[in-house]
Each structure stands twice: as structure tokens, then as C-alpha cells.
Amino acid sequence: MLSMLLAACGGDDSEAEGDSNASDGSDSEDTEETSEGPEIGQKELTEPYVAWARETISTEMLNQLLEKVGYNVDTKQVEAGPMFSSVAEGDADFQTSTWLPATHESYWEEYGDSLEKVNQVLDQAPLALTVPSYMEDVNSVEDLKGNKELGESVDWKIIGIDPGAGIMENTGKALEEYGLDKWELTESSEAAMLTELQSAMDNEEPIVVPLWKPHWAFGSLDLKMLEDPKGIYGGDGDQIYTVARNDLKDDAPRAYKVLEQYDESYDMINEMMPKVHQEDKDVEKVVENFLNDNPDKVDEWLDGVPRED
After folding, report:
1. How far apart are CA 3 and CA 279, in angstroms?
2. Is residue 34 assigned to a domain?
3. Which helix (H) or strand (E) holds 87?
4. 137-182 pLDDT tens trace
5. How far apart are CA 30 and CA 238, in angstroms?
6. pLDDT digits (tens, 9 = 90+) for 264-292
7. What CATH number is given to the structural domain containing 270?
8. Quick check: 147 and 209 in contact, CB under 8 A?
9. Which of 191, 225, 259 is a domain's end point?
10. For burial by CB atoms within 10 Å, which of 90, 133, 146, 257 has the most?
């Protein structure tokens, strides 16, 4: 009886040891899986954007990068206000179109507590009132004040873009700060503004518009940004950030890591903008070709992230 009891006890110890070993192996396996990269979390993501020159491309870049690591991304074209509010309120997940400290200052003041700066993707993005270079006597915003000849030649109008854009808000402030009482900022869209700019330059006529870099127009047209002594447009330039709702890191860790690692250069954006906005090529194909031609850059953006493509 004693012998049988000892044998039984020994068997229990063996099973317990085996269970312990199995548990250790399982933990090791879990650790191994975790070490391969962050979990995917929620697979459906929403990315709002405004159809500005850079943003059209940058949004599609992140769309395709995230698809490579297992996400389904729904890109939604909106205006600037809804772009910020939708991410802050959790109806969307992230956007890569936040220009700070100047251009989107008012949006950041309103929604910044519900948003996280994930990464700075471009370190210098200047904005300014802009004119054709052949307008030799106009070099500063101050040159617009009381300039009757110029004002009458353009009906005292600055040709603007969509009303929700930060640069429109800054231009309205510039009219006040520089005492440009007779001048009026018109509202349209980036595409409509560029059409008027191109038409004026084809005829060597004067025109004043708000513009920013990076933008394909500076590579295709002979333009100059007006000096801004009061710094209304942010001095040397804004920085562009990818921002996300506050809890995206917990909900989609893998996506968050991609957003953390994604950055841009002027060369990269300037290479793609003319293809999309001048040659009218499909943005999805342009971005796809760039990613295929630059595997080292893709590896950098997706470093440490499991791929599913």
C-alpha cells in the first residue's frame, strides 16, 4: 500500500513538473511571438485627409504601408476642421496633416488634449503670401499696403483656397496685422487657386495667393514667397506631424509603430507631387511605384513590424 502511495505521489510530482515545463514553454513561445513585433490590435483604421498637394500623397503612403502589415485603411477626404475633430472624437484614428506651431494653432488649441503627436514627419514647411517672380516691386507683405496700382490690377483680391485651411486663417490675420484694409481674401479650393495662378502667369499678370512648401508649384512656376516681418505665417516654417487619437497605441500597437517610424523628405514628396497633380497619374500607382523602387526606405519605416503582404 505504501509503495503504491509513493508511486502515486511520484506520478503527481512528475505531472506537476511536466505542467510547469509546459507552462514555461508556453510563456517562452508567447515571449517569442511578442519579440517579433507589436500586436496588430484593431485591423480597421480610418485616416481623414484634406486634398492638398502633399497630403494626398502622404495619406496614400501611410495607407499602403499599413496595408503591408495587416490593416484595412479607410481614407476619407474632408476639410481641415472635420479632419481634426474626427480624430479627436475617436471617429477616425489618425492623420498626417498637422502643421504646427502656426498654421493649425487654433485647431490644436481646440482639440490638442484629445490628440497625440506621434511623429514629426517634416521639419520645415514654410507658408506665405506668394507672387510670380516677375512682380519685382513686391517682396514683402508690407508692399501690399496702400499699393493702389497693384490693388486695382487684381481688384484688391488675394486668391485663397478652402476656408477651413490654416493658411486662410493666417492670411485673414495678416490682413489685420499689416493694415491691408482694402484687400479681400477670396475662398475657393487649392485646385481653383492654382488654375487662376497658372492663367495669370501665362499672361504675365499680377496675382497674390497663399502658398506653402512642399508644393509642386514651386518646381514648375517661377514664384517667390513674400517676406513676413511680423511672423504671421510662422517665421522659418512649420513642422508637419502625424497625430493620432490618444488611445491608438493601445488599440493598434503595430499601426502606431509604423506611424512612429514614418517620416518624409522634400526630395521624396517633390518626386511624387508633379506626377499626381500635373501629369494626372493615379496617386495609388505613383505611391506603389515609389515603395517598390525604394525597398530600403520601406524597410526603415517598417523596421521591427511583421508584414502580411
Report:
1. 89
2. no
3. helix 80-88
4. 999 999 999 999 999 999 999 999 999 899 999 999 999 999 999 9
5. 43
6. 999 999 999 999 998 999 999 999 999 99
7. 3.40.190.10
8. no
9. 225
10. 257
**Strand order through the sheet with 238-245:** 94-100, 238-245, 115-125
User: Could you tell me the pTM of the whole model?
Assistant: 0.81
Instruction: Give the domain range for residue 257.
Output: 44-124+238-301
How far apart, in whole angstroms, are the C-alpha atoms of residue 195 and residue 16? 78
DSSP-derived secondary structure for 127-177 = EEEEEETT-TT--BGGGGTT-HHHHHHTTTEEE---TTSHHHHHHHHHHHH
Question: Would you say 55 and 97 are in contact if contact means Cβ atoms under 8 Å apart?
Answer: yes
Q: What residue has cell string 509603430?
A: 257
Q: Is the dihedral of CA 62, 68, 70, 75 positive or negative?
A: positive
In a domain, 247, yes or no: yes
Give 184's strand partners.
157
CATH number at residue 206: 3.40.190.100
Strand pairing of 223-225 and 127-132? Answer: antiparallel
In degrees and rounded to multiples of 5, residue 144 shows phi and psi of: -85, -25
In the block, cell 496614400 appears at: 60
Packing angle, helices 253-261 and 53-68, rounded to 10: 130
Helix (H), strand (E) at residue 31:
helix 2-35
* Residues 133, 192 share a domain: yes
